[in-house]
Amino acid sequence: MSEKMQRTDDDPFDDVDAGTVTVRLWSRRPVCGPRATVIDRLTELRAAGVLDDVEIQTWPEAIAVSEHSVHSDVLDTVERYETWASERGLSLRPPFETRTSSLLVGGSKEVLRTPMLVAAAYEGDELVGVYPCTDGTSDWSITDFLDALEGGLTELPHESPA
User: Fold this and answer.
1) Backbone angles phi, psi at 92, to 5 degrees
2) 121-157: per-residue pLDDT in tens?
3) I need a surface site. Which of 38, 103, 147, 159 has the fewest CB within 10 A?
4) Of 152, 130, 159, 145, whose CA–CA distance to 42 is shortest?
């Protein structure tokens, strides 16, 4: 994280340079229960000036993996997130899973099963975090990410020494 993201113990929201951090939250429908709780927490962080913006996107439970998918933009986004994770020795699987799905009329197709929630953090245009993620030993959830934002973030949870 940049030095702009560092905070002091006096007021955890003082040193954040508003306008630099955006969170894109991906959710399956319906957006209720624990998903709504995450949205509420993000909205509070936005209102407090910790986040510049919060974008909420929905995606289907499963997406056919093909060149002519209606959800090609989602597949491209997932690929960018997985590339980001791989470059840092992290993984987003699970909760993303690719499965073979049988069709009712015979045959099968590969589908990407999407998680209930994924939060992607950006500083400006740069992707700096995707949650949940794992390094194979430690796991970092969206809750870990939100707790870090609320508790005086000096670095993202996946950047913290284990």
Assistant:
1) -105, 10
2) 999 889 999 999 999 999 999 999 999 888 866 667 7
3) 103
4) 145
Structure tokens at 14: 């003082």
Which of 13-17, 27-31, 50-54, 156-160 reaches the highest mean pLDDT? 50-54
Tell me which residue of 117, 107, 108, 103 sits closest to 146, measured CA to CA.
117
Q: At what angle do helices 142-150 and 34-47 cross, to 10 degrees?
A: 30
Q: Is 69 helix (H, G, I), strand (E, B) or coil?
A: coil
Helices (H), 63-161: 72-87, 142-150
Predicted TM-score of the model (pTM): 0.78
DSSP secondary structure code for residue 29 in this structure: S
**Which residues, in sequence order, are CB contacts of 76 under 8 Å at separation 6+?**
none
